[in-house]
Amino acid sequence: TTDRVSSMEKHLGDFSLDALASVSGPGLEWRLDPLNEGAGDLRQGDLVLIGKRPDAGGTTFLSAEASYMASQLPPDKCVLWVNNEEQGDKVRRRIVQSAIGCTTDEMDEHLGEILEEYEALMGGDRRKIEVYDKAKVHVKDVEQAIKRLNPGLIVFDQLWKFKGFENLGEVERQTELANWAREISKEYAPVIAVHQLGGDAEGKPYPSMDMLYGSKTGIQGEADLIIMLGRKDNSSTRYISLPKNKLQTPRNRAKRNG
């Protein structure tokens, strides 16, 4: 009985000044100013879903934002990037490029200098962003990595491919993965997770929330912020929209769903 009471107390909070102030206190800023205006800072407990079709710029977007947020973390925190898509070293290279803002040719020509510049930008820690690279990553693998690395930001690229909850149908499994990501964000650090869009989003600059693969409601309900990356057919332009936004501190509330 005592153990059960203790377990319950863990889930019962208090109406304290510190607890309530933390919801709108300083968090992690975005690199893109329109996201600071429309979405606001990220804090522990926030789950962000990035909806995209293949070749919509998801890894590039994540590289830019994760490298910017990493430089804001205290020395004892890192970014944990769980990668089950591209080869790990390719992702690490794109992270460095995004952080420094250099072209592929510049990086090839001055790799040593660029790595030194990257390390300095990350507070002297070249592994400020830890890329956990495993094609068939399981939710249990991720939980172990989180406990070991103590991240201040967690990136899942891509969440819908994670292993786990295989006893469920695919729609229920995708909903459970989103619920699991939500719990991770509450217990450890804000989570930014990529989720695939269905074929009906192809060629649409501003896809709607119901185009998220494997769900019409369940996945959408778990997220605090949904960012859609869209493109028109054969266009080099990418479009960004915020169809859902429950974050607390947008700098311009008129752009909450911009």
Write up what this structure looks like.
This protein has 258 residues and is an alpha/beta fold. It has helices at residues 2-10, 17-22, 33-38, 58-70, 88-100, 104-109, 111-121, 139-149, 170-187, 218-222; strands at 47-52, 78-83, 129-133, 151-157, 191-196, 225-230, 239-245. A hairpin with an 8-residue loop joins strand 6 (225-230) and strand 7 (239-245). Helix 4 (58-70) crosses helix 5.
In short:
This protein has 258 residues and is an alpha/beta fold. The protein has helices at residues 2-10, 17-22, 33-38, 58-70, 88-100, 104-109, 111-121, 139-149, 170-187, 218-222; strands at 47-52, 78-83, 129-133, 151-157, 191-196, 225-230, 239-245. The protein has ten helices and seven strands.
The general outline is globular
Total strands: 7
Biggest sheet, open or closed, and with what strands and sense? 7 strands, mixed
Radius of gyration: 19 Å
Kindly report the average pLDDT value: 91
Instruction: Label the structural class.
Output: alpha/beta
- Compressed to H and E, one letter per element, the order equals HHHEHEHHHEHEHEHEE
Low-confidence stretches: none
What amount of the residues lies in strands? 15-25%
Lateral strand order in the biggest sheet = 3-2-4-5-1-6-7
Tally of individual helices = 10
Distance between the termini: 50 Å
**What's the helical proportion of residues?**
25-40%
